[in-house]
Write a structure and sequence with these properties.
This protein has 250 residues and is of the alpha+beta class. It is 24% helix and 34% strand. A hairpin with a 3-residue loop joins strand 11 and strand 12.
Length: 250
């Protein structure tokens, strides 16, 4: 069945409008209705297998939905560094604001497997420390398990300076990555759980050349992602816990 292009265009415009009106919250009733409408108009019959449409760099256009966020007066969202990456990077309590969230999906060596990284660009807002810009890259891979569903597996993470960042300021904040004695008992408990369940290898310090900090998961957790809508400019997905992401080609 050929869906009217004008109807899809109108539905995408309506979704962008309601997202703007409610601050990007995908749990808003108007947003839910707009997404459901687009889902019914999805022009791609097997989106999880449509590599030519999926392979691209996507930009999140709804509000970030990491746990523990706080919306600021300017509409942006603030988090602690620990909330963005399993409390793997120090200082976990560092306050930052999210500038944008990107997701590059690229074909890997395997014929079916693609990258599924989530790149969070941030600016620190802790008044006691220099302001720097950085990137948290949660690394992952995905592959189709049906025409509409991807299996997703996260494999690690990287904390890196943004190209515009003053490296001396960056090092002053992030050089020390061995502060387990300063972690709360909840953080220590979670760290032990992650090591046991997922084979988590915590950061071993900052890379002296790239100034990056990294961790890996040898037995990474898996999840499923349903693609609700996909075309040349828009992608809408829903995770198994109900988290909806609306992304546009960047």
């Amino acid at each position: 069945m050929v869906v009217d292009t004008e109807k899809r265009t109108s539905a995408k415009t309506a979704l962008r409008q309601v997202l703007a009106a409610c601050g990007g919250k995908t749990k808003d009733e108007a947003v839910i209705a707009a997404i459901d409408n687009l889902h019914q108009l999805n022009p791609t019959t097997a989106p999880a297998r449509s590599r030519e449409l999926l392979d691209h760099q996507w930009l999140l256009i709804n509000a970030p939905n990491f746990p523990g966020g706080e919306q600021l007066a300017d509409g942006k969202y603030a988090y602690t560094l620990g909330r963005l990456a399993f409390n793997m990077f120090q200082p976990t309590g560092l306050k930052l604001v999210i500038d944008r969230v990107l997701q590059p999906i690229l074909l890997l060596g395997d014929a079916e497997q693609q990258s599924h990284d989530i790149i969070v660009e941030f600016t620190t807002i802790d008044e006691s420390l220099p302001q720097v810009r950085g990137i948290v890259r949660n690394q992952g891979v995905c592959y189709p398990v049906s025409d509409t569903v991807l299996q997703v597996q996260f494999t690690g993470g990287i904390l890196a300076p943004h190209p515009s960042t003053n490296i001396k300021d960056w090092q002053a904040i992030f050089t020390e990555q061995h502060q387990s004695s300063q972690k709360s008992w909840q953080e220590k408990l979670m760290s032990g759980f992650l090591k046991l369940m997922f084979g988590l290898v915590p950061p071993q310090g900052i890379n002296p050349e790239t100034r990056e900090v990294a961790f890996t998961m040898k037995r990474a957790p898996k999840g499923r992602l349903e693609i609700l809508y996909l075309d040349e400019e828009l992608r809408i997905t829903r995770g198994q816990k109900g988290t909806v992401l609306v992304c546009q080609r960047n």
